[in-house]
Amino acid sequence: MVPEDQIRRHVTRRALLARGSVGLGAIALSTLLGREERSLASSSVGLPDLPHFAPKARRVIYLLQNGAPSHVDLFDYKPMLERMHGQQIPDSVVGGKRFSTMTGTQTERPCLQAIARLRQHGESGATVSDFLPHTASIVDKLCFIKSMHTTQVNHAPAITYFLTGDERPGRPSMGAWLSYGLGTENEDLPTFVAMTSRDKEASCGQIFYDYYWGSGFLPTVHQGVKFRGSGDPVLYLSDPPGMARSHRRAMLSDLRALNELHLQEMGDPETATRIAQYEMAYRMQASVPELTDLSTETAATLEMYGPDVTTKGSYAYNCLIARRLAERGCRFIQLMHAGWDQHRNLNTQLEIQCRDTDAPSAALVKDLEQRGLLDDTLVIWGGEFGRTPFLQGKISETQSWGRDHHPYAFTIWMAGGGIKPGITYGESDEFGFNVVRDGVTVHDFQATILHLLGIDHERLTYRFQGRRFRLTDVGGRVITPILA
After folding, report:
1. pLDDT, tens digit, 9 for 90 and up, residues 143-172
2. Residue 127 belongs to a domain with what CATH number?
3. Does the pLDDT at position 323 exceed 70?
4. Of the candidate ranges 50-59, 151-160, 240-249, 363-372, the one whose mean pLDDT is the lowest
């Protein structure tokens, strides 16, 4: 028997259906794309009906502060906490709410005032901690949302909820959705890039899971490309010793031809992804070294980002690379910085964490504005929840003061990309415990981001396991008062 005939005899029903549907679709898409270099699953081509309306933003930089910054210490000034410092927070405020295991059984919950002074700044009068002087200097460019709330009380589910719209791993992350829907503006760099950093003291045990930038059930060509903090930004990007670029091109062309034969035979979309990623890696051999060459930056720019800006893997370095990615057309840049989980070291670690992240965050906003990029770049700063207005532990043990996880009210800020500057939206109660005005859910937050990018969040869907999924699941509303 001819080997090809023998293979066909053992094709499963599932493989046959896949071959009939995906294979024909891949061939049709290949014809539409035209260019030889462009793969059958290229993320450069978005959906034909997107954007749904004129976008305000073309790209997103998400500065996700893992571990949850304390809103009552940094942004949400509450005189009541000063007046009741050391006194039990009223049961009527706590109301049987759920907390993490660190304070879930703690009966004494003394109010804890902000550990540094909060002052009003700018024409907007926004309150910012003395720990964040650089952020304080740009408050009139920012929109503070002080009424964020979430359903999750532990780190990984809460981060997953913000990034994917569901607390369970397996859904596409926001960057993957945008890659799928809008494609890229630069075929030489990934559509979606993720970078991670952590506090120098390693005081926080947060783990960066790969699914935070995963594609879930979307084709894997849309997953985020993680830039490493040491060595080559992407593994295996450099050619082996003795391998000329022309030889690499010839090898990839032959490999592509073999993969396309397999794709036509089996119709597996992951083969299309493999073709696309090999081609992307080849182009990145030239684009990434140029991207990470900071010699073209002025001394004033480097100074603005702070002393760690040339240290690979630092938050400051990642912020500068984020700006360079943005000006080169990267669609979604996800920076994740761990170290905000101050359960027992609030009096020492919070100031250190602010010092490491304050200048780079503010510099990114100012740098984008100076280059004319802020108007169409949406910058987001915030954690997965806030910290409790009451103390974790005992008021007498000053050196081990801390705050537990708090999902019921917390603060984030946004800038650029169609966001109204110099405003504060929403309000928490006099303890900073519950939302009392203009609450914003995680799905509201996601719906607003998509809206700024010209996407109706109810119409960006993907059929999987018999139903159409979307980033905002079955909820979400656009927060129109914060739109410019």
Report:
1. 999 999 999 999 999 999 999 999 999 999
2. 3.40.720.10
3. yes
4. 240-249
CB 329 within 8 A of CB 189: yes
Give the residue numbers spanning the domain of 270: 1-34+243-289
Please report how many Cα atoms fall inside a 13 Å half-sphere around the Cα of residue 24, on the Cβ side: 5
| Nearest-angstrom CA–CA distance, 187 and 284 | 9
Instruction: Give the phi and the psi of residue 385 in degrees, each rounded to 5.
Output: -165, -170
Same domain? For 248 and 344 the reply is: no
135: helix, strand or coil? helix
Residue 159, amino acid: I
Note whether 326 and 216 are same-domain residues: yes
pLDDT score of 269 more than 90: no
Tell me the CA distances in angstroms from 207 to 198, 204, 280, 431, one per residue in order: 10, 9, 28, 31
Residues 56, 38: Cα–Cα separation, whole Å: 28
For residues 19 and 142, state if they share a domain.
no
User: What is the average pLDDT value for the chain, to the nearest integer?
Assistant: 89
DSSP secondary structure letters along 259-309: HHHHHHHH--HHHHHHHHHHHHHHHHHHHHHHHT-GGGS-HHHHHHH-TTT
Residue 39 lies in a domain: no
Is pLDDT larger for residue 231 or for residue 340?
340
| DSSP code for 400 | G
Tokens of 139: 């408050």
Q: Tell me which H or E stretch contains 61.
A: strand 59-66
Provide the 8-state DSSP code for 390. Answer: B
Whether the per-residue pLDDT at 402 is higher than 50: the answer is yes
What is the β-pairing status of strands 126-129 and 118-121? Answer: antiparallel
Are residues 227 and 273 part of one domain? no
Say if residue 317 is in the same domain as residue 285: no
